[in-house]
Amino acid sequence: MQYQSTRNKSVKVTSAEAIKTGLSSEGGLFVPDSIPSVTLEDINSLVGKDYHERAYFVLSRFLTDFSEDELRTCINAAYTKEKFETDTIAPLYKLNDSAYFLELWHGPTCAFKDMALQILPHLLTTSMKKTNEDKEIVILVATSGDTGKAALEGFKDVSGTRIVVFYPDNGVSEIQKLQMVTQDGNNVSVAAVKGNFDDAQSGVKKIFTDDEYKTLLSNNHFKLSSANSINWGRLVPQIVYYFSAYADLLKNGEIKLGDKINVVVPTGNFGNILASYYAYRMGLPVNKFICASNENNVLTDFIRTGTYDKNRPFHATISPSMDILISSNLERFLFHLNGENDKTVSEWMTSLSENGKYSVSPDVKSQIEKLFWADCANETETMEAIRSCSDKYGYVMDTHTAVAKSVYDKYTKAAGDGTKTVIASTASPFKFNQSVLIALGGHNAVAGKDEFTLLEELSQKSDMSIPKSLAMLKNKSRVFDIVCEKNQMQQIVSDFLKID
Ligand SMILES: *Cc1c(COP(=O)(O)O)cnc(C)c1O
Question: pTM of the entire structure?
Answer without folding.
Answer: 0.95
